[in-house]
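From the shared-data thread, chain only:
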Amino acid sequence: MQLRNRQDFWSGVMFIALGLGFAWQATSYQMGTAARMGPGYFPFWLGLVLALLGAVVLLGSLSKKAQETHVDRFDWRIVFLVIGSVVFYAVVLNYLGVYISVFLLVVLSSLASHEFSIKVAVANGIFLVVFSYLAFIKGLGLIFPLWPSFI
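Structure, as C-alpha cells:
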C-alpha cells in the first residue's frame, strides 16, 4: 500500500482520533439502552460512526484510484479570523444585540475565505440574521437582546 492522497489520509486520522476521543469520553456518562437512552448513548455511537467514517476515508487515501495530492502549509490567518470572529461575537452580543452581532460574525468570518466576496458575505449575514430570529427567538422562545443596549 502506498499513500496517494495525503489530504484524505490526515483527514481520516483526524476523524478517527476525534471519534474515538468522543466515544471514550461518553463512556463516563450513563449509557442506558436503545429504548431508554442515557446521556452517553448518543455521543458514544456518534463518535464510533465518526471513527468508522474516518477509517473509510483513510483507507480510500491508500487505494490506487485515489488522486495524488499534497497538503499545503497551515494558514494561521484563517484560524485566527474564524476563532476571533466567534470570540468577538461572544463579547459583543449583549452590547450590540443579536441582529448586529450575527451579521458581524458572518462578515468577519467570511474574510477567512480565499474566495471572499462582500456581496455574498452581506447576503449570508442577512439570511442568518433572519434565520436566527425565526429559529431561536420565535421558534424556541430564547431571550436575547435583539438591538444594541444603548438604543
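The helical segments are 6-26, 41-61, 76-110, 118-139.
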